[in-house]
Amino acid sequence: EFQRGTVIGCHLCNKSSCEISSLLNIPQSTVSCIIRTWKRLGMTATQPQSGRPSKLTERGQRMLRRIVRRGRQLSAESIATDLQISSRTVCRELHGVGFHGRAAASKPYITKCNAKRRMQWCKARRHWTLDPTLWEQFGSGPFLFQHDCTPVHKARSIKTWMTESGVDELDWPAQIPDLNPTEHLWDELEQRLRARPSRPTSVCDLTNALLEEWSKIPINTLLNLVDSLPRRVEAVIAAKGGPTSY
Predict the structure, then answer these.
(1) Which residue spans of the chain are classified as CATH 3.30.420.10?
(2) What is the pLDDT of residues 57-101, one digit of tens each?
(3) Who contacts 23 (Cβ-Cβ below 8 Å, separation ≥6)?
(4) For the Tc1-like transposase DDE domain, which residue ranges apply (predicted)?
(5) What pLDDT, on the 0 to 100 scale, is given for residue 210?
(6) Domain 112-238: which CATH class?
(7) Residue 169: what are its φ and ψ, rounded to 5°?
(8) Distance between CA atoms of 57 and 23, rounded to whole angstroms?
(9) What is the pLDDT of residues 94-134, one digit of tens each?
(10) Which residues contact 71 (CB under 8 A, 6 or more apart)?
(11) Would you say residue 200 has pLDDT above 80?
(12) What is the DSSP track for 21-52?
């Protein structure tokens, strides 16, 4: 109630909804709702609702708000799995406190510079062949280690270890997740973990659960992902370095 009064006070001082939202660190939609209620009813308190009671306790509602503020790109389904409630309940509870979902962009934005680098990378490797000996538990021949350009992988300690250990890295430009089959494999593993009937409660439990779900992934899934690389390369070239359906 104090916060609602503060919103109205700011409004009467000719502050915009955007300014009030930034000042009080609450969603702009919540600010607008409070102001509309005040204009309609002449008070900040909401009228008693006759609908169904919330399925979440006050503690559960606070936890839900914390989760959303820390991970605004999370889907309702993933949040529902963590809280062990339905995705419809998640959406209803979030709407009640002023949070509203948005559709994610269907394809990531790629800068002109990175699009050019993607094209160069793909054209240079367009005629590579997949070596079937890859699946022979790392033979004695040379190999290239592939990882993406996330900051943790580019840390000085990591680069030093790779150099001292004689590990040759595959050149990998930025903004190229659609060429990395591993991304789909991580997604598969995450979905399997979320589908488990009970959540891990410790690091040890999480490790064991991941190892168990990893062992259940069919080998054909891995082979199909590797075999998809030539198609991914052609897709990037066809898109002139832009985003693809992968």
Answers:
(1) 112-238
(2) 777 777 777 777 776 667 777 777 767 777 778 777 777 766 766
(3) 10, 15
(4) 148-196
(5) 92
(6) alpha beta
(7) -100, 145
(8) 28
(9) 777 667 666 655 566 788 888 888 888 888 888 876 655 44
(10) none
(11) yes
(12) HHHHTS-HHHHHHHHHHHHHHSSSSPPPP-SP
Looking up tokens 């973990």 gives 193
Long-range CB pairs of 87-96 (<8 Å, 24+ gap) are: 89/55, 89/56, 90/64, 93/54, 93/55, 93/56, 93/61, 93/64, 94/64, 94/68, 96/54
Nearest residue to 115 (alpha-carbon basis) of 74, 166, 173? 173
Q: Which structure tokens are listed for 36?
A: 């509309």
| Tokens encoding 195 | 């589908």
